[in-house]
Amino acid sequence: MIKPGQLNLMTSGGAVAHAEEATGRYRGTLEGIQLWVALPEPTRHAAAAFEHHTALPQDELDGAVATVLVGDFGDLASPARHDTPLVGVDLNLHGPTTLPQRPEWEYAMVVTEGAVGIHGRQLPPGKLGTSAAAATSCTSTCANPLALSCSAGSRSRNRSSCGGTSWPAIGTRSTRRTRRGLNRTTGSAGSVPRFRSSRHGAVLAPGPAMTLEATVGRVRIDKQHRDAYQAQREVAKPVRTATENAGLERTLVELVNIRVSQINGCAYCLHVHVRDALLGGETTQRLAVLPAWRETTLFTAKERAALTLAESLTTLPDPRAQEQDYADAADVLTEEELSAISWVTIAMNSFNRLSIVSRHPIRTRPTPDH
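^ thats the sequence. predicted structure below, dont judge the formating
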């Protein structure tokens, strides 16, 4: 079993099997980084081996805490085996820091929380940035804590394949999503570093220096106080039951969720509930005009009443306007429907604020075509 801050190392020239499973006692998000390295010819056909390291060396830098996962970093050396020249470091940044670099090495980094700005452009969480920059140092600045994993190694012509796409000999993979087909950058050593995005990640072109400006997301309050977040999630279950008992269609409930999220400007909740609505049979036409639903005839009387009530409970206008909105909704909805829609609105407002405060990231994924 591996715990935060520990390292498992598997070595095999043929094949090795392993499982990635939670213990069953944890219900939150698990984050981990995997580094795959092509073995050199002298050891690539050796017997499979496994190492488990519970204590790894740490160094307090100016503005960061560095945990050396593999290789040498400054005066520290990881006890983990490495058959090729490489280094892997886990960084927690809390201020400006400068990291030593070897000009002849390639570098890769992935952000687990926060974002790294490279010459005015950001490398967001979950994206892989690579560089072959001929630089002697890397300067990072941030005002708040940042979680960052960085790996580096000597350049190699060896390449391995995965799923038909070409990988550099040194790569990183997040347990949340497999990174494949990252572009290998080329260029002259004297060129200015530039940032470009590929389909699968962010790529740094080579240059004499790499300057990183780290911008950090806020405290993830769902992770900081998991019991409170779990209690919040539990509220959603009886609310859903209330809508079902009231006979409300799922499309109507999702319209309320989406409209409330539009008013509050919650990108993450919109990302989730627009997809749920499409999967539930909602049309792109109605979703497209939802902010101007009053100006169309695409919505039923019950849906219009639900949207009127949801908007009023979200914006909380003056008492006279609230009374009029409630009366208009009550002309169409039963008491059970009024109560259920009110609870949907209250719960959605709460989730909106939770996601906005935590700045929950949105990861690219396919959207159903309706």
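The first strand starts at residue 7 and ends at 11.
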